[in-house]
């Protein structure tokens, strides 16, 4: 019988630079999904999904367009690496 180890459910989050709960499953069914699950916390991933939705809606992106996919991938990496990423027009930081 396996014992539950909380440490197995934590990751050193690349966005927040601290140990946080990991995603319950990889966000993509491939190597990239596994890498993201092992380096991005559930908190950071959920925040990215909200931001991604705003970018897709604001920019009227079609995710079957290769250029739109490229843009979202670039923005995801910038967001998760705390680089300067695109924000929707009129966006202001939460206090």
Automatic annotation (TrEMBL):
GO molecular function, one term: iron ion binding
Recorded coiled-coil stretches: none
Entry keywords, A to Z: Iron
Signal peptide residue numbers: none
Pfam families given in the database record: Iron_traffic
BP term (GO), one: cellular response to oxidative stress
InterPro entries cross-referenced by the UniProt entry: Fe_traffick_prot_YggX, Fe_traffick_prot_YggX_sf
Cellular component aspect of the GO annotation: cytosol
Entry's family note: Belongs to the Fe(2+)-trafficking protein family.
UniProt function note: Could be a mediator in iron transactions between iron acquisition and iron-requiring processes, such as synthesis and/or repair of Fe-S clusters in biosynthetic enzymes.
Name recorded for this polypeptide: Probable Fe(2+)-trafficking protein
Source organism of this protein record: Moraxella tetraodonis
């Amino acid at each position: 019988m396996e014992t539950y180890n909380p440490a197995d459910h934590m990751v050193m989050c690349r966005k927040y630079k601290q140990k946080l709960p990991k995603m319950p499953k990889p966000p993509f069914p491939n190597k990239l999904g596994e890498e993201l699950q092992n380096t991005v916390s559930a908190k950071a991933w959920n925040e990215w999904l909200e931001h991604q939705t705003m970018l897709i809606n604001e920019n009227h992106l079609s995710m079957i367009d290769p250029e739109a996919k490229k843009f979202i991938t670039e923005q995801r990496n910038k967001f998760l690496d705390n680089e300067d990423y695109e924000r929707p027009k009129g966006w202001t930081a939460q206090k």
